[in-house]
Amino acid sequence: MPATGQKETWTRSFLKGIRIVAAAAVFVALLLFITQHPQLSEAWNKFFNSLVYSALIGLPCALVLNAIGYRYTDRFPRLIVLMNIGALLAIATAGSFAGAFVLERAGFFTRGHYWDEIHSSLPICIVITLAFGISISSYETMRHRLQNATLELRTRQVEQERANKLLVEARLSSLESRIHPHFLFNTLNSIASLIPSDPKRAEATVGKLASLLRFSLNAGNSSLVPLEQEVKIVREYLEIESTRFGTRLRYQILVPREFGSIKVPPLALETLVENSVKHVVAQRTEGASIQVTGSVLDGSLRLEVIDDGPGFSLAAISPEHGLGNLAARLQFLFEDRGRLDVTRDGAKTIARISLPVESASPPSRCL
Q1: How many domains does the chain have?
Q2: What distance separates the 2 farthest-apart alpha carbons in the chain?
Q3: Are residues 74 and 189 in the same domain?
């Protein structure tokens, strides 16, 4: 239970205890009054006897049960009932002895009959204490668990909403890059230049552009997509860009076909590839080589985009950037099991996505 909820529960119980103490104070005043007026009826004596036992047993039970529930409900959920029963029995027994002592000193029964009073009151006190105490503690335990379940559900809903927001932002960011005037103009110019010399390739490029835009629009419908679809979009994106850059863009996709059914966040791998194209290939006259690989190690899928660019640091990436958004999405979807890393290996820059996978067959062919 969160610290704030625990504090509020403890505060309410403490205030409840204060009210019980105030009622006990009123009882003491009446007790003093009755001791000074012994002519009151026997019925009043029995009534005040019950008040004595109620005050000496009820108040400690309320405080002890609240303390046990506060400290041990989450730590020992299976033992909490036995702990409550043990506490109730101990308090009922101690309260009976204390109540008989107070009543004897106050003159409610003849001195020398202390053990007779204990013998008659103890069984009744134990039965009543167990009945009320177990009922109240069971109710409070159920209420506590219901509050925890409700809070956990709300937390998950908030996290899911935030993950969906990040996914939508990634989709919009990707879509914006697709419909960016420079991208569209360059792609359309490439298509136009292909029409006279290679009309089939021009037609294929139009189809790839439509597929890329469609996937970007539909990415928000699911938080995960098969890796096979993601690799297909990456390939189409690279083929579209190759019509613009020609031999300056050299790429290779080495993702085993057996990994095609593994679920990955949409536009995750594509974001890494796009980053390499925009910041390495487009910025150098000699272009760059991009290699996309996939492997499974110790139950974790590793997707890598390797280029021969100068590299960069994730620490310098803002959360609004495509890579920053991707890192946040991996954290929300997979917690500590999903992450984005950027490392250098000689003259190569490696951007790696790691995320959990249930199982995968040994690789044979590539997607």
Answers
A1: 2
A2: 121
A3: no
